[in-house]
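Are you able to produce any protein sequence you like plus the matching C-alpha cells because I've never seen that pairing?
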Amino acid sequence: MSANEGKIQTPPAQQQKQDSHGKETEMTPQPIVINEHYKAAGKLTGMTAIITGGDSGIGRSVAVHYAREGADVAIVYLKGHEDAEETKKMVEAEGRSCLLLSGDIGDEMFAQEAIRRTMDKFGKLDIIVNNAAEQHPQSSIEDITAEQLERTFRTNIFAMFYLTKAALPHLKEGSSIINTTSINAYRGNAGLLDYSSTKGAIVSFTRSLSMNLAEQKIRVNGVAPGPIWTPLIPSTYPAEEVKSFGGNQPLGRVGQPADLGPAYVYLASTDSSYVTGQVIHVNGGEVING
C-alpha cells in the first residue's frame, strides 16, 4: 500500500508557512489520493480533462481518478511545482498523459493560453474541472482588505468564467463542466467571509450555466466538499485548529481527497447523463439545505 492509498488518518497538530496554497509534500500524514478499494471501469476512456488546482489536494485526487478511468489530463496550478510533478508521476503511473500548466488562472490571458496548450497537446477537450481556490481567514470584515477581496474572487470565481469561456468553443454534446464549491456556501463561515461568498457565487454560476448550456447538451454540476485534509488547512489555520479539523462532522473524521474523486468521476461520466445544475455534497454527513 502506498502513502497515497489506504485508511483514513487523523491529522496531527501542524502548521506550514502561512500562504494561500500550502505544500502537499510537507503534510503529515500525507493526504489519501485514491482509496485502496477503488475499482476503475474505464468510464472516461478516450477523454481529456483540464483540472485547475490539480497539483495537490482534491485536484490531485480528481486527476488520478480520471487517469485510472482512462482520461488524459492537463493540470493547471500556480506555483506548487514539486506537488505538480508528483501528480504528473501518479497520472503517468496509471498509463495516461499529463500536461502541466503553471500560471495564474485568475488572469484571463493565461486561462486562454491553458486551453490553447491543452488543445495543442491532446487535440480535444471533454471535461472542465474548475477547482482552484484560495482562502485567507480573518476574524472581522474590517480585516479584509480590498486587495484580499479582489484576489479571492479573482482566483475562486472569475477564473471559472475565464476558463469556461475559453474552453466552450472546444466542447461538444456530452462534455461536462464540474465546479468545486464548498459546504461554506450553504452554512456560512464567520472567519472566511470572502471565501464563503465566492463559493456561494459558484453555486449560482453552476445552476445558471447549466441552464445556459442545456440546449447544447453540455452538463454543468458542482461538488461541495466539507472539511477535507488538503494543503489549504495547515497553511491557513493554527496548529491547534488543524489538530481537531473535521472532528465535529457526523462521521467523526476529516475527509480525504480520496473521498471526493469518485464524485467527480460520476459527474464526468455517462453515469450522470441526466444530471445537470446539481451539487453533490461530500461532507461527512452534515445535512445541508438549499
Summary: The radius of gyration is 17 Å. The chain is about 40% helix and 10% strand.
